[in-house]
């Protein structure tokens, strides 16, 4: 016996109307009627006396209504007991964290979480942002980090850290003495860039397209420090998040602000909408409210 059929039947009895029940349940009237007919077929009785103009239950309908109410009430009680037990046993949180995001910002939050919730095992899966979305959708991780821009109706999105991306050049480069540079001035430059595994790769390409050119990428790497080392030797230029460059700063490079367009860069904490908010997730996510 489907719980849904009992629930639709009880709501219809309480509303004394298929139409009103459908409105309160946010479903079509036909869905309510079909559900009650399925319940009648399963129990092999008529629940509603359709000979009357007004909504009237049969004797069997009154019996089913009484027991259906008890079943539904008991379901809610048992559901809350189950959720409470799940919270009590909730000792693992799986967190998807892209390379470098931890050292730029999340290291302090991870420490704070461990201090506040010492009994919860925080399992960090180091993976680039595009894979984090898939892992969340497949319930492999509970919460993850991506970069802006990111929009998806399936996710709750918290902007937790704002900065910008900047041009990085060698001290020997012609732009090293500039304080700011328009994007279009870089159309003939040789770029050293991150690989396609990084969400940032496509964001960079979109910014170049917005500025009216396709970048000449001569080398790609997963290693931020290698990219900066090659730039320091004047083998090419790069555009990277400012906090990352400051974190891995090496000699012989200069940072230059980008304009027309500017290049904002943000870290976003994301998790699936409409899922049960376990205690471990709640404890973790609340750490970021002060930064929003």
TrEMBL record:
<dbReference type="InterPro" id="IPR036390">
    <property type="entry name" value="WH_DNA-bd_sf"/>
</dbReference>
<protein>
    <submittedName>
        <fullName>DNA-binding transcriptional LysR family regulator</fullName>
    </submittedName>
</protein>
<dbReference type="GO" id="GO:0003677">
    <property type="term" value="F:DNA binding"/>
</dbReference>
<feature type="coiled-coil region">
    <location>
        <begin position="65"/>
        <end position="92"/>
    </location>
</feature>
<comment type="similarity">
    <text>Belongs to the LysR transcriptional regulatory family.</text>
</comment>
<dbReference type="Pfam" id="PF03466">
    <property type="entry name" value="LysR_substrate"/>
</dbReference>
<dbReference type="InterPro" id="IPR000847">
    <property type="entry name" value="LysR_HTH_N"/>
</dbReference>
<dbReference type="Pfam" id="PF00126">
    <property type="entry name" value="HTH_1"/>
</dbReference>
<dbReference type="InterPro" id="IPR036388">
    <property type="entry name" value="WH-like_DNA-bd_sf"/>
</dbReference>
<feature type="domain" description="HTH lysR-type">
    <location>
        <begin position="1"/>
        <end position="58"/>
    </location>
</feature>
<keyword id="KW-0805">Transcription regulation</keyword>
<dbReference type="InterPro" id="IPR005119">
    <property type="entry name" value="LysR_subst-bd"/>
</dbReference>
<keyword id="KW-0238">DNA-binding</keyword>
<keyword id="KW-0175">Coiled coil</keyword>
<keyword id="KW-0804">Transcription</keyword>
<dbReference type="InterPro" id="IPR050950">
    <property type="entry name" value="HTH-type_LysR_regulators"/>
</dbReference>
